[in-house]
Amino acid sequence: MTPQFETTAGVAVPAVTAEQMREVDRVAVDEIGLALLQMMEHAGRNLAEVAREVADGGRIVVLAGDGGNGGGGICAARHLANGGADVTLVLDRDADELTGAAARQRRVLAATDATIVSESDVGNAGEHLRDAAVVVDALVGYGLSGALRGTAATLVEATADAAHVVSLDVPSGVDATTGDAPGVAVDPDVSLTLALPKTGLAEAAVGDLLLADIGIPRGVYDTLGIDYTDPFAGARRVWLRNRT
Ligand SMILES: NC(=O)C1=CN([C@@H]2O[C@H](COP(=O)(O)OP(=O)(O)OC[C@H]3O[C@@H](n4cnc5c(N)ncnc54)[C@H](O)[C@@H]3O)[C@@H](O)[C@H]2O)[C@H](O)CC1
Ligand SMILES: [K+]
């Protein structure tokens, strides 16, 4: 049976597989006209607010990859820097290798005071994370393919010693659909998942689970036959718990 979550107010929230979530994104963009950057801005803003609360004035390190997950993390770094936080972005590749929305977010971030560390300057990953009050994990989301490799894997290993970790959408290294980790994976204090919880979040170690509103209108869910009741009631994010 498909796992279900519920909000603390008792509103049922269906979980979706990575494939279903990709369809939600596709319908939102191709059929409804919502831009990826619009959704990402809400993801990044929500993530920045959560990181800021957890960091309580301390240093924040954002780990980011090249996909939609990384783009949300880089966007969060901008909101954090705009708000005066001491924030360092650590990329799992060189900045000039970023593409699409992640590259765009990185370009905008360059206009803030945030420190940006590229893959070739990472060196000892643990050094960057050592004094962090919170590490934001935005390396890989539902786009995980096989066991984590390369610098992403090294950075994930370094999060084991972090004071607090907040994961965006899905802990990096965890399969969003099954909850299995084929290799190393982040073990976060909090996971902030986007729009709808992913089925794997009911199985994996995800910490406390938050659901963020990224502005998807219900017509997208209706188009796909997803039984959806608005869980937010005007809030930007809500806590979820397992229902089944
Ligand atoms: N409606 C929504 O939920 C929205 C979600 N967003 C975020 O976008 C990601 C999904 O984005 P996508 O680009 O499809 O994939 P990812 O970013 O998760 O991953 C691609 C990224 O990861 C690297 N990678 C994949 N597997 C591995 C591996 N085994 N080892 C190392 N690296 C790996 C790959 O190279 C790419 O760089 C979703 O989770 C949300 O966070 C949107 O931002 C808004 C709408
Ligand atoms: K992640």
Automatic annotation (TrEMBL):
The UniProt entry's GO CC annotations, sorted and at most eight, read:
P-body
Source taxon at top rank: Archaea
Q: Which UniProt keywords apply?
A: Isomerase, Metal-binding, NAD, NADP, Nucleotide-binding, Potassium
Q: Which gene encodes it?
A: nnrE
UniProt lineage:
Archaea, Methanobacteriati, Methanobacteriota, Stenosarchaea group, Halobacteria
Q: What is its EC number?
A: 5.1.99.6
Q: Which residues bind (6S)-NADPHX?
A: G68, N69, G70, G71, G72, G141, Y142, G143, L144, S145, G146, A147, D169
What GO molecular-function term can you cite, just one? nucleotide binding
- What range does the record give for the signal peptide? none
Gene3D superfamilies this protein is in?
Answer: YjeF N-terminal domain
Instruction: Write down what this protein is called.
Output: NAD(P)H-hydrate epimerase
Q: Name one Pfam family in it.
A: YjeF_N
- Supply the HAMAP family for this chain: NADHX_epimerase (MF_01966)
User: Does the UniProt entry include the keyword Ribonucleoprotein?
Assistant: no
Q: Say which family it is in.
A: Belongs to the NnrE/AIBP family.
- Organism encoding this protein: Haloferax marinum
Q: What does the record give as the function of this protein?
A: Catalyzes the epimerization of the S- and R-forms of NAD(P)HX, a damaged form of NAD(P)H that is a result of enzymatic or heat-dependent hydration. This is a prerequisite for the S-specific NAD(P)H-hydrate dehydratase to allow the repair of both epimers of NAD(P)HX.
